[in-house]
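Example record

One chain of 408 residues, shown exactly as stored in the release files.
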Amino acid sequence: MNETDYVLNQHIFDAVRFLKENWQQKPVVIRGAFLDFHDPISPEELAGLAMDSGVDSRLVIQKDDQWNVVHGPFEHFNDLPEQHWSLLVQAVNEHVPIAQDLLRAFRFLPDWRIDDLMVSYSTPHGGVGPHVDQYDVFIIQGLGRRRWQVGAKQTLKTVLPHRDLKQTEAFEPIIDAMLEPGDMIYIPAGFPHAGASELPSLNYSVGFRAPSQAELLSALADYALDKEKLQKRFEDRLEDTLNPEGNGLPEFDPWHFAPLHTAGFKQLLLEALQDDTLLHDVLAEFLSKNPRPPLPEWPERPVLEASLEYQLAQYPLLFKAIGVRMITTEKDGMIHAVVQGQWYPLDEDAEDLFGVLCDMSDCIDTHTLSEYLESAAARHLLCGLLNEGLFVLGTDDDDDSPGEDITQ
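Predicted structure tokens for this chain:
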């Protein structure tokens, strides 16, 4: 196995059976989910990431039943106790290319469902306490050993031991398991769970997006306002409210907001949701956008299709910006790519190119792109992504820093 290959053990894990019996239904422990699992990141490298201002990280520390949460970036990790703390770093896949490779094992689920890879380093007894997540998660055990308890889906009292830490009251576990390296546990959204390390541990949490109604309605509103859609306004049909007795005027006071008004506004909103084409476009753009927007690196001059091959010849590597989201969908009878909300029509060549770009973890050799640039649609796609600053031509001059030792 190549050191960057992460493949689920097909003798242990049956994706079809999992989707039928477990996905969004019930938690499950998969022993030996990954054979010969190797950590894509060390504790020292994770600590180095947590010192970066562009990375979302936090320390959760427990002492004498008191909880504290400290947010990064961190200057050092001195004075930490030997036990009862965890360092958690979000979206490690967007900063460590080999960590992105770990997500490939989960491509029996749609790419647009994946949120990020959160990595935690925990000392003995370290954890974040019992809690409930609003997304589905696979947690892979790397270095060390960690005990997981999962309860049945239920309503539990919320506990706030710290303003930045939401926990639940204690629950009766339906799963109580110690995970070894290469083991994995799947926990659907809404199931309470708690993890505590027995030994210094690395854990890899692959989270899957579960947009709320509020987020979807917000995306619809943002799109409609930006595109000047859904402009129909509320209309009062006051003749339906007239009182046939007395003076015949509406039977409610002028300052009263009546249930029939609510019904009228509800109908207006429901009409907005009947436009399937509009909803499709809203959702495609929403799902193609990273909530942690990538930082674009625009070229000094626009890259033109006529000079694309010349530009590629000047640089040995094509880099992908951190956190780029890419999906395809059908529109007007044609396959389109949607990248960070931008649309690109695809023909067969462009679709092949898109697959190559989508599979990139960090960078690829530019000479490998020539065979995919036969069509105008393929050249339009690559030029568009370069001009948006989401893909960048360059050389390999990365400076890898070792990070800081937090294991002592």
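Notes: The mean pLDDT is 91.
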